[in-house]
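Board notes, transcribed. Complex of a protein with pyridoxal-5'-phosphate.
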Amino acid sequence: MTLGLAENRQLSEADVLAAPKIMTPLPGPKAKAIMDRDDKVISPSYTRGYPLVMARGQGAVVQDVDGNTFIDACAGIAVCATGHNHPRVTAAIQAQAGQFLHMSGTDFYYDGLPTLAERLQSTMPVYTNPQGVDCQDYKVFFGNSGAEAIDGAMKLARYHTGRQNIVSFYRSFHGRTYGAMSLTASKATHKKRVGPLLPGVFHAQYPFHYQEPMGKNSCDTAQACLQWFEQNIFGRLFPADELAAIVVEPIQGEGGYIVPEDCWLLGLQYLCKKHGAVLVADEVQSGMGRTGKIWASSHVAGFAPDIMTSAKGLASGLPIGAIIAKAHVMNWVPGVHATTFGGNPVACAAAIATLDCLEGRDGEANLCDNATAMGARLMAGLRAMQQRVPHIGDIRGRGLMVGVELVLDPIAKTKAKALRDAVVDAAFYHGLMILGCGENSIRFSPPLVITEAQIDKTLTIFEQTLTEQIAQHG
Ligand SMILES: Cc1ncc(COP(=O)(O)O)c(C=O)c1O
């Protein structure tokens, strides 16, 4: 009888240095056996691509159950910020687990909640409060996931403003609960046969100059999108004084790793301020050091969202989500919002340790700095590759949130979706784990501990795979 316990063994330094190393056909025999069992009992709504059956990980390397090793350039969809099995995070989890696992933070107190909230507060932009004082006063609500944080942010926006209408953007992804799904507008499949969705949600244009230019350059496109918003949302759908919130990803994630112009984000902030609405920045994917700063929003001078949502990398892999709001905005009264598990003490401990690593405290390497340096190395390598491989149409991103858009023809920018899917799949068989995003892009979102040597191997395998697949797909 199996106890369901993994063999307790860590990857050796030699295994990590030698990665990737493929020793069996993929999937190997042990992986195949687990996949067959999984197929019988796990929800068919999951979208598994290539057959990775994970056994253990170390940093940016994962090993499957048959002993094959891979370079992980997706980090469990931008989650494992500090990499797999980071000693500081693991020690924090073990220490807290040895004290207590749960004591519902919405009913009782424990130190992890204010400690983590204080740490998050210190990462947030300074803003001018309604009394005209510059401050960093924020309050935090802890939940368990990104979608839950988004749903809570929608509730908070409606509660605070007393208004109902919320605008998000085409191609955005905010999660799978009904509120988050209503904001999401990336793939119609997400909404197949599950409507009706939440009323009072509308969608606007997100600037994407490469594929959807609305002027000569990306600044023109950004300005045109702001005009589109005013003309179509306020002019045709509802009056500006009925807007509760705009919800925006500061870098669009699932939609294609699209980086908007700063002036567009500042323009949205201006519209919210002018009309008494709140601006919600969804930093679930772009936050926690991924872009080289704790928040992608912090790259934009003068940008201070009223509400921010975080999850994914927040606790390096344990489930937690956060709504971080300006103190006067989080003015809901007891009972309006709560959750049993939110801000679980073990997840809080992991999140505090994660922030220690991102900020380089107590002798830890500063992972934000590493994300900046390794992101620059990855981008430079991809740009050099673009000279050799014209199917690389666009390269974009910040830090270690890097997207590559594949096209059949760099002039017409014809979207190469089949090629993209084939490259993602084939890279795995060469030992590199990547994921798609948007219609025809590939995302690189490795753990922030990734090394120079691992970035270089990532580039080599990516180019080899891309070249092979172009030869097969044209
Ligand atoms: C920007 C963004 N918001 C929200 C979510 C939803 O997060 P979760 O899957 O934890 O519910 C995601 C997930 O990919 C995301 O990328």
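The radius of gyration is 22 Å. The chain has two domains: 13-85+366-473, 95-359.
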